Amino acid sequence: MMRALIIGLGSIAQKHIEAIRKLDSNSELYALNSSSQKLEKLGVTNLTSLENIARLNLDFVIVSNPTYKHFDTIQKLKKFKIPLFIEKPLFSNLNAKEELVHFIISENIVTYVACNLRFLECLIYTKKLITNKRINEVNIYCGSYLPEWRKNVDFKKVYSANKEQGGGVHLDLIHEIDYAYWLFGNPIKINRIFSCKSSLNIDSYDYANYNLQYDRFNINIVLNYFRKDSKRTLEIVCDDETLLIDLLNNKVYKGDKIIFESRNKIYNTYESQMKFFQEEILSGKSKMNSIEEAYKILKICLKKD
After folding, report:
1. Residue 156 domain-assigned?
2. Domain check: are 163 and 293 in the same one?
3. Are residue 110 and residue 137 in the same domain, yes or no?
């Protein structure tokens, strides 16, 4: 039976809760100082203080509060040395964060930063397909319409639209940078353009463009909040063929021909991710997307060269 504490009981946490319960219907879940209405709806027990953690014999803690609160939350949790499942992105900025990262590593505290696209089948298939292929160019695109992300909610009041709360398309959609790193490794040079010029009229960045340079090819990544006809694709131009990966429909094309498809959607990756976390990360078999790796990816996202 799994025992977990959730800090931040928003929409993403509810996806993780559902995934946990699919894997273990008897799991015991706690939330820190959440509203009684949410607790009752989700069947989660309230925890009034972090100091009560010791008596719970927890297997792990999910950190899923707003990104700008992650640093302080992890600082408070580090003394308990309980495994941490941290919702992406790791932090909202790089200011004075390395000391905490080094402490977590030195104390061998188990960490995993949740980037669930690594569990999307079309990307898993692609990772195997491109092994030993000569790649000349990579184009990654993710555009969607922020006002439609959350039903019956004023999009200008959520963290995504507010820079001070860790909002911005570059952080919200760090998934694209994460899977680029996962598929192709660490770039040798990075150029970035961030802006907020669209009709959304928000103060966080609504557009980001990255050029990641490698020894033999470049990757271009475009992210935005303002595209009404959502598109999420990866194009890999190889010597012998061009591959197009449609993430929204979980398909891989070689030219006009579909060479892989799955009925599963991105939503299904939450269960796969949680299963991997419980079976591989908690057991020590894997250190994928540890705080060390996630910090490297955050530097690609944010660091000024």
Report:
1. yes
2. yes
3. no
**What is the band of 304 on the pLDDT scale with cuts at 50, 70, 90?**
low
- pLDDT band (50, 70, 90) for residue 27: very high
Q: Where are the beta strands (DSSP E) in the chain?
A: 3-7, 28-32, 45-47, 60-63, 84-87, 111-114, 135-145, 189-195, 207-213, 218-224, 226-238, 242-246, 251-254, 257-261
State yes or no: pLDDT of 97 exceeds 60: yes
Helices (H), the chain: 11-23, 36-42, 70-77, 98-106, 121-129, 169-172, 174-184, 269-276, 291-302
Look up the CATH number of the domain holding residue 155. 3.30.360.10
Q: Helices 98-106 & 291-302, crossing angle to 10 degrees?
A: 160
What CATH number did the domain enclosing 15 receive? 3.40.50.720
Contact assessment for residue 61 and residue 29, using Cβ atoms and an 8 Å cutoff:
no
Q: Could you say which of 115, 134, 167 is where a domain stops?
A: 115
Nearest CA among 247, 254, 251 for reference residue 230? 247
Whether residues 95 and 189 share a domain: the answer is no
pTM over 0.85: yes
Return the CA Rg of the chain.
19
Shared domain for 38 and 108, answered yes or no, is: yes
Nearest to 87 by CA among 53, 52, 115: 115
- What is the rounded CA–CA span in Å between residue 282 and residue 272? 15
CB 198 within 8 A of CB 225: yes
Dihedral sign of CA atoms 146, 16, 56, 46 in order: positive
178 and 294 share a domain?
yes
Q: Answer yes or no: is pLDDT of 34 > 80.
A: no
Domain count, the chain: 2
What range does the domain containing 59 cover? 3-115
144 within a domain of the structure (yes/no): yes
Residue 62: is its pLDDT beyond 80?
yes
